[in-house]
Amino acid sequence: MTATLPPVVSRNPADPSDVVAQVRPAGAFGAADAVERARAAQPGWLNGGAAARSAALAAIAAAIESAADELAALAVREVGKPLAEARAEVARTIAIWRYYAQAPYEPVGAVHEPAAGSGLLLTRRRPHGAVGLITPWNFPFAIPSWKAAPALAAGNVVVLKPAPEATGCAQRLAEIVQRALPERVFTVVPGGAGEGVAVVSAADAVSFTGSAEAGQAVTRSATVRGIPVQAEMGGLNAAIVLPDADIAQAAAHLAAAIAGYAGQKCTATSRVIAVGAAAFPLREALTEALRSVQVGDPADPTTVCGPLISEQAREQVGGAWAGLPVLVGGIVPDRPGWYVAPTLVEKAPADHRLLCEEVFGPIAALLTADDLADAVRVANSVPYGLVTSVHTADLDAALHGLDELDTGMIRINAPSTGVDFHLPFGGTKSSSHGPREQGRAALEFYTSSRTYTLTPEKTM
Length: 460
Description:
Number of helices: 14
Shape: globular
Distance between the termini: 67 Å
CATH architecture of the largest domain: 3-Layer(aba) Sandwich
Largest sheet: 7 strands, mixed
Radius of gyration: 23 Å
Structural class: alpha/beta
CATH topology of the largest domain: Aldehyde Dehydrogenase, Chain A, domain 1
């Protein structure tokens, strides 16, 4: 029974004695029931029309904007996101809802000429029904929003199963969203893996963001059921720095991408590949840039690197540099909260954990390559393929990298972190499965295409 399940508890990672949320889990039965109840509300939501859906999403954007300071403070407290990043995430969340508020008016199909004779051939996209969303803790407002907003705009209803560590953020987001929507159109089911499995087993389509292991399980389950599924499962991202790059600027970009939010982003840089003569100056500049990163209380506006999300995460990251030469960092500060200093190591063998797994912390390995072709080979040598950054003044070299890199996103002279919500987001290999997220691509995932053939009963 649900009553026997332990409560879902989230704590402030900067002050673990501070309990942010403690709620009763939905349980597997409750999660499945939430999907069924949502499904019953879907026809009414769809049939309310494009104008009603557009107005509702616009109202959600306005309500989030009114609560922006409160939401940013909650993200700081519950998931340890530095205040500047928390404010930026809330601003992005507002923009996401405003962007998709226009989507209900987008064309949902096309008219085609028949190959022979009279009549009409039509294509039309229709919503799936009840969509299950399984989201991580690191972007507690933006990721649920960039999944839910296009799903709702297309006429689906949504059941959100958030990460336990972001339960408070999910519940507060739900309070805001639900005020603008009919009952059961947007539902949050708190809990852990059991509730996630139940949502995947009951929903009409599933969108997941999280670890590769969990994402593969979600993908297998959804595929067996024959429902649409997309899974975003992390990265082991490289930054390639060529000798002609602005080394100081590249080092600043890399330090931000390695240590920002304690490296707890799927787009964080975890491998730095210095090409040829860039090796020594980049080594010195990046070491100094990481040493200068402000580590501390995420509520401090100057903090760049706050705590890791949990004690377990700190233990995993804190041992990742064992046996390697440490250029900077390699320290677990003796202070309340789950902190690890920004760390850069070198001379990691190809089979080292840092070059094979997503560690999800403020740590990167410095590697070298003889030339661009060698750097691309190294960048492509891992199981993931989410994003690569290339730093160079040579546009020809950058374009060559664009052609050869096996990642879903390539960023030139910019950090690997940072995404544009109106463009497709996703990777290759173990980073992603299924269609892309965000932008117009999301509207395609949350609908299915139907082809209609209309032939007159009698020809003249």
